[in-house]
Amino acid sequence: MSTKTWTAVDNYIVSSLFEADPVLDAVLAANRDQGLPAIDVSAAQGKLLSLLVRIGGAKNVLEIGTLGGYSTIWMARGLPDGGKVVTLELDPHHADVARANFEQAGVSDKVELRVGPALQSLETLAGENAGPFDLIFIDADKPNNPNYLAWAMRLAGPGTVIVCDNVIRDGAVINEDGRDANVEGARAAFSFIGDDKRLDGTAIQTVGAKGYDGFAIAVVD
Ligand code: SAH
Ligand code: DHB
Ligand code: MG
């Protein structure tokens, strides 16, 4: 089994279960044209995020790591009328591309994009008494995972769902040698969720068009 098979099966999932989606196709094309790295979630994963928003009845979503807004758009689509995604992005170019993509996808009224280091934006949000957020998706610089999880706990309430992306990394998560900062970030997410008494969590390994990785998911008591 290889990424080739996993990609073919991802294509099967999309063609069997999803409507044709010229808007999201255009978003990915815009990201490519603007030189953004293709590290967005896959379509199947994006749909899962959208379903999690719907299943949980989330109205108030926080995303850390926007890139071109592909995952943001999926989550915005799961929101009820009046719902909102606050999404945090460091890179002004990524933010510009995302803003145009939100327009293209017709979700601008549901998305608030804040540009700058997420740790600063999170502090600002806390100062504004933002939250509690119903769902928090962490998908930015992996070494900051423990800091983002700590902020997520401050901006959460009972029942808040926290999803942390890229915590398996080709299975490297079980390497303890500490040589890869992204892997250490994944391990730090496991330690945080395992140690925090208010969090009940699991992790799911995934294969697909984006290779072998996975996400952690936890709920706040
Ligand atoms: N969630 C997106 C992918 C995000 S990729 C999707 O699935 O479509 C990770 C993003 O985090 C990149 O755009 C990167 O610029 C951003 N990022 C990296 N460090 C950051 C920081 N300190 N604060 C905010 N965003 C950061
Ligand atoms: C990387 C980041 C991501 O958010 C992702 O989904 C895949 C890879 C990375 O920085 O390598
Ligand atoms: Mg990711």
What gross morphology would you assign? Answer: globular
Report low-confidence residues grouped into runs of 5 or more.
none
CATH fold topology: Rossmann fold
For this structure, what is the CATH homologous superfamily? Vaccinia Virus protein VP39
Category from helices, strands and their pairing: alpha/beta
Q: Give the spatial strand order of the biggest sheet.
A: 3-2-1-4-5-7-6
Q: From N to C, what is the helix and strand string?
A: HHHEHEHEHEHEHEE
List the quaternary state of the chains. single chain
Tally of individual helices = 8
| CA gyration radius, whole angstroms | 17 Å
Percentage of residues in helical conformation: 40-55%
The CATH class is: Alpha Beta
Mean pLDDT: 98
* Percentage of residues in strands: 15-25%
User: Ions, cofactors, ligands: which are bound?
Assistant: S-adenosyl-L-homocysteine, 3,4-dihydroxybenzoic acid, magnesium ion
Largest pleated sheet: 7 strands, mixed
The total beta strand count reads 7
Distance from N terminus to C terminus (CA atoms, Å) equals 39 Å
CATH architecture: 3-Layer(aba) Sandwich
Overall tally of domains: 1
Essential attributes:
alpha/beta; globular; seven-stranded mixed beta sheet; 221 residues; Rossmann fold; binds 3,4-dihydroxybenzoic acid; binds magnesium ion; binds S-adenosyl-L-homocysteine
